[in-house]
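Why show two proteins at once? Because comparison is the fastest way to build intuition. When a single record is shown, students tend to memorize it. When two are placed side by side, the eye starts asking what differs. So, the first record is below.
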Amino acid sequence: MPYSDKEKQRQYQREWQRNKRAAEVKPSHSRTLNLDEIKTARGLLEELAETIKEVNEAKGDIFMKARLKGYLIAIGLKCVETADLESRIARLEEGYTINH
């Protein structure tokens, strides 16, 4: 039913869009983080992989999903760098303790 009052029509359209976005974003299930497993960069990478998988399976705006995946991938790259540094430091420490 169209509104004769333009302001009421805008208000209705805004509310309709909000409700539509809210329905798309709601997760089908909630998952809690196990903080005991995320003590290393590798643990965080596993959690990020699971989150990206959920984003891929979620329904919603493709552009919103693309932005979210890009953000998560950027975080993942930093984790990979950190994990690499973590393993290199561990190897250096092992070599240091063996030589001394």
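Second record. Ask yourself what differs from the first in the token line.
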Amino acid sequence: MKCISEHGVYVKRTEGSRIIICLYVDDLLIIGSNEECIKSCKAELMKEFEMNDLRKLSYFLGIEFTQTTFGVVMHQTKYTRDLLKKFNM
């Protein structure tokens, strides 16, 4: 089902779980509460579309993601370092 408020977001509900697919041009992010459902969704998509599975999320649309024991942290460390380097700081 397509999200009403965000045109590049799709939600797929299955038995007791939910998968969220974020699509921007040729970048695709699949997240969800059940790893088996995510694998199944990826397999379905790979049958229809040419795509690569980059495994665990680390970078998406210029934002870095780090997995911690508390969850996922979003940050832009590389962008900040590159910006500081550009201005000799």
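One difference worth noting in the second protein: The longest strand covers residues 17-24.
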